[in-house]
Amino acid sequence: MSTVLLAVVAVILCILFRILNVNSQPYKPVIYGRDRNFIENILFIAPFLNEPYTPTRLWGFSGHVQTILHSLIGRVRCPWPIGGRISLVLPDKSTLTYDLYEPVGSEREDDVTVAICPGIGNTSESVYIRTYVHYSQCHGYRCAVLNHIGALASVPVTGARIFSYGHTDDFGYMVDNLIERYPNTKLILVGFSLGGNLISKYLGEDRKRPLNIVGGISICQGYNAIDTMVHLLQWQNFRRFYLYIMTDNYRNIITRHKRILLSQEMKTRYSLDENMIVSAGTLPDLDEAYSRRVYGFESVTDLYKWSSSAFYLDNIKTPMVFINARDDPIVPEQLLPVAREFVSSHDKAMYLELAHGGHLGFYEGGLVYANPVTWLDRALVGLVGGLLMAHDKCAPKDAPLLDAIPDEDEPDLIKSATIIYRDPLDKTQKV
């Protein structure tokens, strides 16, 4: 009996070790891009981006555990930053809110505002947003966090819609309002997951944008909603499980505000069937029953194409940084070539691809108990500083040539980095 018990324990331990991926090791982020000067400015401010990312030893090498802990717990010892809530009534009668946080601690010479767009159904009250806001405040940055319409239970829906995957106007209204309040501020746009898609689409759309925008940072977005759904509908790597959770959360937001969103007037105007909405098992089903009708699309595919930043990236002229993890169970590695190709064919663009981190997790340090500040929090503050430096050094009169001999006392910051420069016209190169 003891032999059988030992065998069972051994099998369980093997399964756990396989799930937790404890045999893995820390790796440096792989940096993609063709603009050497831009990348060097980033690494000058944040040299740790060229160092191995070390997840929490026992469980941090598992993308699933990182993703699940991020969803359930968020961050360790999360602060609650003090700020104020701004409310705007939009032309379509929707009530849009965003939270504004002034910098604390160290003073900066210039006025910088980080405009943050959270992930799907998230708000300024989400734990990972609060941690990043507090860390950013302490480094002298003002932060503004968009609250997706419908996501806050305390803010009623007053218009005929909630947020969607590709509706960038809400973020645009927040940015415009920030410029009215702080006309001389420098704006850095930061988007998490769905928010990364929205800020990228916003920067690539044919629309008027403030000249104050210095750069954008996208974290863990999927780039193409059509391809993303193809992968999420598969059971491989438990993706269908994550899709179920996202569907349930989105449906709960709709039903929470059903008095407005599913009123008889709305049902008649958009041909909505409440039973189809409530019984939808996947996001494509829910989008067929609700989203594509409210936004006036003939099909879900048309909605997804309109929503996807991949179809707008080529029009982006603003400096951009993209971050993804290869073990992200929601955004599989097959979706990442979009970012690689973009930075390989555009200047002032950089893509960081990490081996580990999951979906918005990026916990680091410790054996079991992770550090309060994640690698992602540190990276974002460093990237904001790097984008500001690159902006300030744009076309300086006394800039040395790139192939000039460097000072012996100054290290070549990208000589030791794992950087891949690719010729976008050379299809024979492989990653």
Describe the SSE topology:
Layout: H1 2-20, E1 30-32, H2 36-45, H3 63-72, E2 84-89, E3 95-101, E4 112-117, H4 127-137, E5 142-147, H5 169-181, E6 186-192, H6 194-204, E7 213-219, H7 225-232, H8 239-256, H9 258-261, H10 264-270, H11 274-279, H12 283-294, H13 300-307, E8 320-325, H14 337-345, E9 349-354, H15 375-392, E10 419-420
Helix pairs in contact: 2-15, 4-15
Strand proportion, as a percent range, falls in: 5-15%
The poorly predicted ranges are: 6-11, 395-408, 422-431
| Biggest sheet details | 10 strands, mixed
* CATH third-tier fold name of the domain at 22-224 and 308-394: Rossmann fold
**How much is the radius of gyration in Å?**
22 Å
Describe this structure in words.
By secondary structure, the chain is of the alpha/beta class. The protein has a domain at 22-224 and 308-394: 3-Layer(aba) Sandwich (Rossmann fold). It is built from 15 helices and 10 strands. Strands 2-3-5-4-6-7-8-9-1-10 form a 10-stranded mixed beta sheet, with helices on both faces. Helix 6 (194-204) links the parallel strand 6 and strand 7. Helix 2 crosses helix 15 (375-392) and helix 4 crosses helix 15 (375-392). The longest helix is centred in the first third of the chain and has 19 residues, at 2-20. Mean pLDDT is 88; it is low at 6-11, 395-408 and 422-431.
Gist?
The chain is α/β, with parallel strands linked by helices and 431 residues long. The protein is built from 15 helices and ten strands. It has helices at residues 2-20, 36-45, 63-72, 127-137, 169-181, 194-204, 225-232, 239-256, 258-261, 264-270, 274-279, 283-294, 300-307, 337-345, 375-392, and strands at 30-32, 84-89, 95-101, 112-117, 142-147, 186-192, 213-219, 320-325, 349-354, 419-420.
